[in-house]
Amino acid sequence: MADQELQQADGPHGPRSFVDLHAHSSASFDSLADPRRMVERARRLGLTHLAITDHERIDAAQHAARLAGDDLQIIVGEEIRTRDGDLIGLFLEEAVPPGLSATETAAAIRAQGGLVGLPHPFDSFRSSGGRRAGAGEQALGALAAIVDFVETHNARAYGDANPSAAAFATRHRLPGVASSDAHSIMELGIASTVLPGPFSTAQELRTLLPEAELLTGRATYYVRLWTPIAKVVQRLRGNRRVTPDRLAGQGSA
Predict the structure, then answer these.
(1) What SS3 class is residue 107?
(2) What is the mean pLDDT of residues 91-99?
(3) Alpha helix (H) ranges present in 4-160?
(4) Is residue 6 part of a domain?
(5) Could you tell me if residue 86 is inside a domain?
(6) pLDDT tens digits, one per residue of 208-230
(7) Bridge partners (DSSP) listed for residue 50
(8) How far apart are alpha carbons 163 and 95 in whole angstroms?
């Protein structure tokens, strides 16, 4: 998606929503994207909703939500490594710990009233539930039974990962979304999802997802190099990722 405002044309349920449901801030070990700049960039792009889904923590997303105005909703989310691959939790109030089973993780997300997403399920380079489950249809069906949506297009996915995810979602009659999985400011919104109306809650988003339209851009190889660079920088910092005190000192957008 180009660095320009999206057309905010009305859909059948009112003003359309332009959303990126998977992005990482500098609170993640593999990103250097400042939360304040993520808010500013999302506004410039014309996104109406941005989910910040850091690994195993939600404090930066909460901070960004306080910075956002009425024109942008930050969804507090988390990418959680389960024993069965990664899951996304959206609309969270507390971080969900890693290391649980996928079923236990989904239950912890839903206990907060959140939505459960399956990110990059067939990407060989990430902790992906579909790859871990292999070709076992029973194992794949168990994953399908606990999620609300599937990331059928991930801007960073390789090979046949996205087509496999789309086929999985179709087979199990699950809504699909497109996400940037941004680990840098320049990636934000490269892929996104258009919904046919506005929403502000998990239930409203769940209702709109079956009518999603996917904008399927891809991150370039050059952009993907930011992830290993970010990991090195974070290690040199002694893994001192963004803390609430540091966030508070970064000002407002």
Answers:
(1) helix
(2) 97
(3) 35-45, 59-67, 102-111, 129-133, 137-144
(4) no
(5) yes
(6) 999 999 999 987 765 666 666 55
(7) 20, 74
(8) 31
Cβ-in-10-Å burial (0-12, 13-18, 19+) of 184 comes to buried
Q: Which residues contact 58 (CB under 8 A, 6 or more apart)?
A: 76, 77, 78, 92, 94, 95
Q: Classify residue 72 as left (phi > 0), alpha (psi -120 to 50) or beta.
A: beta
Neighbouring CB atoms inside 10 A of 111's CB total 10
Of all helices (H) and strands (E), which one includes residue 54? Answer: strand 49-55
In this structure, what token pair is assigned to residue 194? 């258009």
Taking the model in full, what pTM does it have?
0.85
| CA separation for the pair 89, 21 (Å, rounded) | 10
Domain span holding position 105: 16-248
For residues 129 and 151, the answer to whether their CB atoms sit within 8 Å is: no
Residue 10 lies inside a defined structural domain of this protein: no
- Contacts of residue 13, defined as CB under 8 A and 6 or more positions apart, other chains included, come to 196, 197, 198, 208
Mean pLDDT of the 5-10 span:
55
Residue 238 buriedness (CB in 10 A; 0-12 / 13-18 / 19+)? exposed
Report the amino acid identity of residue 168. Answer: F
Nearest Cα to Cα of residue 47 among 1, 98, 82, 89 = 1
CATH number of the domain enclosing 126: 3.20.20.140
Instruction: Say how many domains are in the chain.
Output: 1
pLDDT tens, 136-154?
A: 566 778 899 999 999 999 9
Is residue 46 one of the residues assigned to a domain?
A: yes
**What is the torsion angle, in degrees rounded to the nearest 10, for the CA atoms of residue 53, residue 88, residue 96 and residue 51?**
30
